[in-house]
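Quick note —
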Amino acid sequence: MTEESLGILLREFDPNGDTGWVIDVHRAHYRDVEGFDDSFAPVVARAVDAFDPIRDHGWIACAGLEQVGSLFMIRENAQVARLKLFYIAASCRGQGLGRLMLHKAERSGRRDGTSLMRVRTFKQHTAAVRLYVRSGFELVEEFPVHEFGRPLVEQCWEKALDVA
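Predicted structure written out below.
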């Protein structure tokens, strides 16, 4: 699976041009599809605002001129990176774009010396969980929470990377 075969361009996140889109698309999706309340949008805004273009990586998937996906890799320390703000538009799901974006993050992490990638999600996000399992992530923590106006089961997944 390649960008070309999907008709997708994965480009670097541009804080000046993409911030509003990332916040808006996450707010709308998680409100309309997942039933999250308004407390979710500020969490997304803080994550985007904390992005450091020198230390972190962010990618935006584009189909033509339309933004259809996002993924951020945020450094926790020199060896550990956390994946955040992973989103794929409904029109692009099930085609391999999530796997392509995740592989891009893994390659970038290996180049940067990342030896461990982490991601938090909710058990209810079954497509995301399937992607992490198929990509070699291991479940390391799971616990019930009441977040964003609803009961959820939060999960933490990790994957060790062989550093290039």
